[in-house]
Design brief:
Recoverin, domain 1; 7-stranded antiparallel β-sheet; Plc1_PH; EC 3.1.4.11; 30% helix; alpha+beta; 5 domains; lipid metabolism; 866 residues
Length: 866
């Protein structure tokens, strides 16, 4: 539905209809109604249930919601009347399951909700739809302000509304605007008067000043000559004159014959808030990059522990993690597969996480794989199953994915010389798993690097790992998931069966033992006796300067016989372009076939970056590598993925259930190229020579924070707005996140210092917070969350290797100085490779990166080389 259409909500749904609300505990009949003006679903409950339409993430009905009906073990007769609403509340995903009383009522609810949802989705996909956005705003706040329901607003009701909007007016200023809007002097505002009042409080002096400057004075006009100069000088536009004339014509007012067309202040404001002036270069949402290059030449949106929707020790395993990731164009999902009672199941090994059948997850992947993007899905599987259940894995995948599952090279060639392209694999599903028949024949070879095997559940017992674990444990100690873990221990204590107690204790001990194995005492560490290699890792024992390297023959004679390979040939047959192998290091003796993929833990990848980054860059030009988070991230936090993208790693896996900085950077990267889930790597990472990598440059990002518009109000845990005693005190924090170029062999050892920021920058811009992050902050505007104005310039220094601006990210965070938790009110994050310079409105988002309907930040952006 077009955002300009007005959705008609049936009177029956406005008044409310009884529906059965279903949960795991009970079924209850409740009255549900839709308030179209406020954009909410309401229902009667002890906690006054409410869901804002813009907080809905997905609507499922009928057969699409069958998974939940079957989970609740309810009859199939309910299927034709079943609605599931998936939404965000207090930073977490929630579900509401409803059964309508009749198919007619079901159809009414289903069609109306989908129409309202479609309009909100369009309004939340960037800038634009200005008139519709304004109409939605006016209806929402008119309805909310009209407490008496008499279609009249008294001055007291207007005062209350302004408080809700964080408007910083004195009583005299507000009274003056109220009287100006009340043109008939009746002492109240009808809807037309209310619209006039809104226009008065939304006046933006900063835009009036800019328009006056561009048009040449108070009585000047903005004709095409002035508009073109603005576009070239301020906006750094590279559009042709014809293209600029087309844009100008969309906003210009035609004059009398013989006089040139001009743009009014209102039209200029509309232009600045339109998609024609978007800050994000990919705003048209189309795939524009070359999709015919080999897979290894793309960054691929990837998920870690996709089956989890919470904590990695005690979280819930569910199909929801896959659906959410796939609907956001994730192209690589993870399966940890174990033996089930009858069929394989998915869960996080050696933890308290719940289990879900592999078949259910494959059905969900098949259904949602190509809804958001047509490009191939890579299923990264860790298989911990017996041979019979490995056969079942192959059987289930073949039956579920059908012809979409790649079981042989698509070009018919027996030998793979180069990986196929995303275009050639459109609509295809690729399985990536370790091929044990390949691993069996790998010999232990000399190398300077110790690398972990492919396992996202693996941890180490060395000192570094213990330190890392302690840091993460301190972060997570007071979190909700740790409380859940304590509850699991309490359950174990209260069990009647001693056998059950032992079982639960062993589960807990397995978790702890992964990170609490003691390091060898100093005396042993300094001994000449070789230390035992870590389990599941390739390493070499230390040797003295006099001792020769062991030969392959002596190594083979002293090493224990490897266990016989146990891997289903049916499963091996599904490994075509993504064959999992161990990383044997990088040297001339090592050869990896184009289809060989290895996985590196975060810790191992960090070692590679320090010791042999250039070798990894070269390898990643023709081969695919997966990076996954450390097992010590107990709260499922994320690393910053651009750290590994700068070495060309394609599958940099993220915990999609955790909305942190790493998630935000990943989201910003894959908003590009039409949200296809594939982004072409910078030329420096694809070029066969080192020439581009040798280019090193220093820059400054100058950002003028001009103003903000209608900042969001905080909400409580139930989704209700919190009416504060006084408006918020906003400030803006801007940070630039730069890959660690320091390990690049081409970065100078002592680069020249970055010049200080210009005098217009505030003292807060004195220095970067760390070597790789520069963070600057504006002053605070007191008591104004409606239209605060700063007019402050921040200058953020950064360096760049190989012109890889795509891998540098800038984050804007609007904060309330009064807030205790330091959590931002709203954020926006974008790659410097996708940013437009000049005067731009940034669409602000919540912490889950859902766009606010009405909140924007007005800035001026420029990038200069130093």
């Amino acid at each position: 539905m077009d955002a300009g259409e007005d959705v008609k909500v049936p009177l029956l749904l406005q008044q409310g209809t009884p529906m059965t609300k279903v949960s795991a505990k009970k079924k209850k009949t409740v009255i549900f109604r839709i308030d179209a003006d406020e954009g909410c679903i309401h229902w009667e409950s002890n906690k006054a249930g409410i869901i804002a339409i813009e907080n809905i993430k997905e609507l499922r009905s009928g057969a699409d919601a069958r998974y939940y009906r079957e989970q609740f073990q309810l009859s199939s007769e309910y299927e034709s009347r079943w609605i599931t609403i998936i939404y965000i509340l207090d930073g977490s995903y929630k579900t509401l399951h409803l059964i309508a009383t009749s198919t007619d009522v079901f159809r009414m609810w289903d069609s109306t909700l989908r129409a309202l949802f479609a309009v909100r989705q369009q309004l939340m996909s960037g800038l634009g739809h200005g008139e519709q956005r304004q109409a939605v705003w006016e209806k929402r706040y008119w309805k909310g302000a009209d407490e008496g329901g008499d279609e009249k607003l008294t001055f007291a009701e207007v005062e209350c509304m302004c408080k809700r909007l964080n408007v910083n007016f004195s009583a005299e200023e507000m009274k003056s605007r109220f009287e100006e809007a009340d043109v008939q002097k009746r002492g109240y505002l009808d809807f037309s008067d209310f619209q006039r009042f809104v226009k008065l409080i939304k006046v933006r002096p900063e835009l009036t000043q800019l328009y006056t400057t561009l048009s040449g004075g108070k009585d000047g006009v903005l004709d095409f000559t002035a508009f073109e100069k603005f576009m070239r000088d301020s906006q750094k536009s590279s559009l042709s004159k014809d293209e600029l004339e087309n844009i100008f014509a969309r906003y210009a007012t035609k004059q009398e014959e013989g006089r040139p067309s001009t743009i009014t202040l209102d039209a200029f404001t509309s232009y600045l808030l339109s998609p024609d002036n978007a800050v994000f270069t990919d705003h048209n949402g189309k795939v524009w990059q070359d999709m015919t290059r080999p897979l290894s030449e793309y960054f691929i949106s990837s998920s870690h522990n996709t089956y989890l929707v919470g904590h990695q020790l005690v979280g819930v395993s569910t199909i929801e993690g896959y659906i959410r990731a796939l609907l956001h164009s994730c192209r690589s999902v993870e399966l940890d597969i174990y033996d089930g009672e009858t069929e394989p199941v998915i869960y996080h090994g050696k933890t308290f996480t719940s289990k879900v059948p592999l078949r259910d997850i494959c059905v969900a992947i098949a259904k949602y794989a190509f809804v958001a993007s047509p490009y191939p899905i890579v299923i990264s599987a860790e298989v911990h199953c017996s041979l019979p259940q490995q056969d079942l894995i192959a059987e289930i995948m073949k039956a579920t994915f059908g012809d979409a599952l790649v079981t042989a090279p698509v070009d018919g060639q027996k030998t793979i010389e180069v990986l196929p392209s995303p275009e050639a694999l459109k609509g295809k599903v690729l399985l990536k798993a370790k091929n044990l028949y390949v691993s069996e024949h790998e010999q232990l070879r000399e190398k300077s690097l110790t690398v972990d095997t492919e396992s996202s559940t693996e941890t180490s017992s060395d000192t570094d790992m213990m330190q890392e674990f302690r840091v993460e444990l301190n972060k997570a100690r007071n979190s909700e998931p740790v409380k859940e873990l304590k509850e699991e221990f309490q359950k174990a204590r209260n069990m009647e069966s001693l056998k059950e107690i032992k079982g639960e204790f062993l589960k807990a001990r397995n978790i702890v033992s992964r990170v609490r194995q003691k390091s060898p005492p100093p005396s042993q560490a300094s001994s000449s006796a070789p230390a035992s290699p870590r389990p599941h890792a390739l390493s070499l024992p230390p040797r003295s300067a006099q001792s020769p390297l062991p030969t392959a023959a002596t190594a083979a004679s002293t090493a224990p016989a490897p266990p016989k390979v146990k891997m289903s040939l049916d499963l091996v047959g599904l490994l075509v372009y993504t064959v999992g192998v161990k990383c044997r290091g990088f040297n001339k003796k090592e050869h990896y076939a184009p289809e060989h993929v290895f996985s590196l833990s975060e810790r191992t990848a960090n070692k590679v970056l320090k010791q042999s980054m250039w070798d990894l860059v070269k390898h990643n030009r023709t081969h695919v590598v997966r990076i996954y988070p450390s097992g010590t991230r107990l709260n499922s936090s994320n690393y910053e993925p651009h750290r590994y993208w700068c070495a060309g790693a394609q599958l940099v896996a993220i915990n999609w259930q955790t909305f942190d900085l790493g998630y935000m950077i990943n989201h910003a990267m894959f908003q590009r190229n039409g949200r296809a889930g594939y982004v072409l790597k910078p030329l420096a990472l694809r070029s066969p020579t080192k020439d581009l990598f040798s280019k090193y440059s220093k820059h400054v990002l100058d950002v003028t924070i001009i103003s903000a518009q209608q900042l969001p109000r905080p909400k409580d845990a139930l989704g209700h707005e919190i009416i504060l005693k006084s408006p918020i005190d906003p400030c803006v924090e801007v940070s630039i996140h730069i890959p660690d170029w320091t390990h690049s062999p081409f970065v100078p050892a002592s680069p020249p210092p970055i010049p200080p920021p210009p005098p217009s920058s505030p003292p807060a811009a004195a220095a970067a917070s760390t070597a790789r992050v520069a963070t600057y902050k504006t002053s605070v505007v007191k008591n104004n969350g409606f239209n605060p104005v700063w007019e402050e310039t921040l200058s953020l220094p950064f360096d760049c290797v190989g012109d890889m601006m795509d891998l540098i990210f800038v984050k804007f965070a609007v904060k309330d100085e009064k807030a205790d938790d330091n959590e931002p009110l709203a954020v926006f994050c974008v790659s410097l490779g996708s940013i437009q310079q000049g005067y731009r409105h940034l669409p602000l988002h919540d912490s889950q990166l859902s766009q606010y309907l009405f909140s924007t930040l007005f800035v001026k952006i420029s990038i200069r080389e130093t």
